TrEMBL record:
<dbReference type="GO" id="GO:0034039">
    <property type="term" value="F:8-oxo-7,8-dihydroguanine DNA N-glycosylase activity"/>
</dbReference>
<dbReference type="InterPro" id="IPR044298">
    <property type="entry name" value="MIG/MutY"/>
</dbReference>
<comment type="function">
    <text>Adenine glycosylase active on G-A mispairs. MutY also corrects error-prone DNA synthesis past GO lesions which are due to the oxidatively damaged form of guanine: 7,8-dihydro-8-oxoguanine (8-oxo-dGTP).</text>
</comment>
<keyword id="KW-0479">Metal-binding</keyword>
<dbReference type="GO" id="GO:0006284">
    <property type="term" value="P:base-excision repair"/>
</dbReference>
<dbReference type="InterPro" id="IPR003651">
    <property type="entry name" value="Endonuclease3_FeS-loop_motif"/>
</dbReference>
<dbReference type="GO" id="GO:0000701">
    <property type="term" value="F:purine-specific mismatch base pair DNA N-glycosylase activity"/>
</dbReference>
<dbReference type="GO" id="GO:0006298">
    <property type="term" value="P:mismatch repair"/>
</dbReference>
<keyword id="KW-0411">Iron-sulfur</keyword>
<dbReference type="InterPro" id="IPR029119">
    <property type="entry name" value="MutY_C"/>
</dbReference>
<dbReference type="Pfam" id="PF00730">
    <property type="entry name" value="HhH-GPD"/>
</dbReference>
<keyword id="KW-0408">Iron</keyword>
<keyword id="KW-0227">DNA damage</keyword>
<dbReference type="Pfam" id="PF14815">
    <property type="entry name" value="NUDIX_4"/>
</dbReference>
<dbReference type="Pfam" id="PF00633">
    <property type="entry name" value="HHH"/>
</dbReference>
<dbReference type="Pfam" id="PF10576">
    <property type="entry name" value="EndIII_4Fe-2S"/>
</dbReference>
<dbReference type="InterPro" id="IPR003265">
    <property type="entry name" value="HhH-GPD_domain"/>
</dbReference>
């Protein structure tokens, strides 16, 4: 039994029962693939179910507000995925009359859809022979064939795509693609896989050469920067607060946060007192303040580590842009902010 037959046989016995595997509807498959980009199934599943319930068709999603889409996405991170999801839904609903592109080439033109996602949708929804290459597939192919070309190099991307395309099951591409991805997720795990029960163990190069912990090879490219955030949690006597919407192309685009001051280092209470508050929400206000967390809360993103402090600002009355504290949870916010809202006792103020 060859490589692909062993994989699909293993898959028939070990596959997880997941809702997007019970349909050929390209909307549901596209939705699941966007949610699962850089997200594990156990985390993404409830979000998928939430989106299907809230927006059962592409027209429902297209007609939603970005505010509501971001709110439903809250906690998944990489929010550009949600914005692209919404933009693509509008394009399909209004420009394509609700009809999804039915081939890899045209799917690749959609916003937020790259090679992997286009291949997945094309093969699963339309049975096109389009090989998927995601993190799980890189790992399986690298180990089984003993390939040490870095998977995030230009040469590696081309090499693994060519290899995946050469061995895909041309009669059942959907089943094969799902099989190799599931195999990487459940059997050929990143760390400490149980090779003793692997159906490919007799012909796996990495196992034979003791390279399982070495492969796949990945170049370290991302330089992590450190930033210092000071959030101003303003509270007036009428239980109002302030939020601001992040604009531009940086992190958390279009999400809401408490007014923010960035600093060059972590501030002490005395240093905060000396800040220039011009052009901030506090510029013309008389206020009392206290530090909520003496130790920085460190929020790690893929390319940034945010050292964060929350400053509690008490004022008599906030400007007209104020919102009732009771409405805070209706705004789409980054996890860092939503966790603070959840744990801070506003009623005690």
């Amino acid at each position: 039994m060859d490589f692909k037959n062993k994989l699909t046989h293993w898959y028939s016995i070990n596959k997880r029962e997941l809702p997007w595997r019970k349909t050929k509807n390209p909307y549901y498959i596209w939705l699941s693939e966007i949610i699962l980009q850089q997200t594990q199934v156990k985390q993404g599943l409830p979000y998928y179910e939430g989106f299907v319930k809230q927006y059962p068709t592409v027209f429902d999603l297209a007609n939603a507000s970005e505010h509501d889409v971001l709110k439903l996405w809250q906690g998944l991170g990489y929010y550009s995925r949600a914005r692209n999801l919404h933009a693509t839904a509008k394009h399909i609903a209004f420009d394509l009359d609700g009809k999804f592109p039915d081939n890899y080439k045209d799917l690749l033109k959609l916003k937020g859809v790259g090679d992997y996602t286009a291949s997945a949708i094309a093969s699963i929804a339309f049975n096109e022979v389009a090989a998927v290459v995601d993190g799980n597939v890189y790992r399986v192919l690298s180990r089984y064939f003993g390939i040490d070309t870095p998977i995030n190099s230009t040469a590696g991307i081309k090499e693994f795509k060519a290899l995946a395309s050469s061995i895909i099951d041309k009669k059942e591409p959907a089943n094969y693609n799902q099989a190799i991805m599931e195999f990487g997720a459940k059997q050929c795990k990143p760390k400490s896989p149980d090779c003793s029960i692997c159906p490919l163990k007799d012909s796996c190069v990495a196992l034979q050469k003791n390279l399982v912990d070495v492969l796949p090879v990945k170049l370290k490219k991302t330089k992590v920067t450190t930033k210092y955030f000071n959030f101003l949690v303003c509270i007036d006597q009428n239980k109002n607060t302030l939020l601001e919407q992040r604009i531009g192309k940086g992190i958390w685009q279009n999400l809401y946060q408490f007014p923010l001051i960035e600093s060059e280092k972590s501030l002490t209470t005395k240093e905060f007192q000396l800040l220039n508050l011009k052009d901030t929400a506090l510029e013309k206000l008389k206020f009392e303040y206290s530090l909520y967390n003496e130790t920085d809360k460190i929020h790690k993103l893929s390319h940034q580590h945010l050292h964060t402090k929350f400053w509690i600002i008490e004022v008599d009355e906030l400007p007209k842009e104020r919102i009732p504290i009771k409405n805070l949870t209706t705004y789409p916010t980054p996890v860092l902010i939503s966790e603070f809202i959840e744990h801070f006792n506003f009623n005690s103020m």
